[in-house]
TrEMBL record:
Pfam families: Palm_thioest. It comes from Cloeon dipterum. The lineage of its organism: Eukaryota, Metazoa, Ecdysozoa, Arthropoda, Hexapoda. It is an enzyme of class 3 (hydrolase). One of its GO terms (molecular function) is palmitoyl-(protein) hydrolase activity. InterPro entries: AB_hydrolase_fold, Palm_thioest. Belongs to the palmitoyl-protein thioesterase family. This is Palmitoyl-protein thioesterase 1. Keywords: Disulfide bond, Glycoprotein, Hydrolase, Signal.
Amino acid sequence: MLFFRSLAFCCALWLTADWALADQPTPIVLWHGMGDSCCNPYSLGYFAKELEEDIPGVYVHSLRIGNNFAEDTENGFFMRVDKQVQKACMIIKKDPNLKAGYNAIGFSQGSQFLRAVAQRCPDPPMLNLVSLGGQHQGVYGLPHCLYPTHKWCDFVRRALNYLAYESVIQKMLVQAQYWHNPTREDEYKHGSLFLADINNELVINADYKNNLLKLKNFVLVRFNNDTMVEPISSEWFGFYKPGQALIELPLELTDLYKQDRLGLKQLKESGRLHFLQVNGDHLKFSREWFNKEITEKYLK
Ligand SMILES: *[C@@H]1O[C@H](CO)[C@@H](O)[C@H](O)[C@H]1NC(C)=O
């Protein structure tokens, strides 16, 4: 009798726990952009709070790379991207709230970093990836820096124009690691420590492709009047046609797509690669737009 009662009790508990879990919204991981930090009350901290209001009960984890906010911001300029991605993977794996899977939202460079997390660290699974103004084919120009303007911006910009593929600059500067000079494709493919690797430029890493294909949806948001990213088409995985820096190719006309080096063709053909656009400058979107186009469709 006692046995049956405890059995019933255990199963009732188990069912309740299961039901409660099924009812919880999918947790969300955020990764901030250059010059920003995980929890800045005027940017990502504010955005996280809005998400929590708009998706009741959601768990939001804004990644902090470093021991405090200042370190997190500096690391966005100076910590080797591979190391940042490795840290992010560890943080995500250690968070018990994320173990059943999570959605991810990247801001600017945080978008390509989260894509690297999806490609390199499939456990726990990333379900939907939203890229807000990410530079998936890199940048060839950094006309402005992000809010709040950071003291390192101008230095970074100058260094990259001349020395992006010098090994010492590659190792030191985050933005050099996704600098893509279309007039020196060969140097980029051999010299870029981060972007050339995650974009399977020299070799095809089958894990990267297979893992990216596990995404339910990959949402690419482009800001049509972006003054901070050059070229803007990089936000949709497009880039300058190799050998020059005037004509831009959309993703579908690049080798990356035609040879399906990353699985993007398969993602698109299965209706899981989405191209959204917003009229406005870098990361300038309204809460209403975000709720209608992103939250309702991919996060709820
Ligand atoms: C933003 O870009 C779009 C598309 O290129 C264009 O139609 C629109 O006029 C631009 N808006 C502003 C304010 O420049």
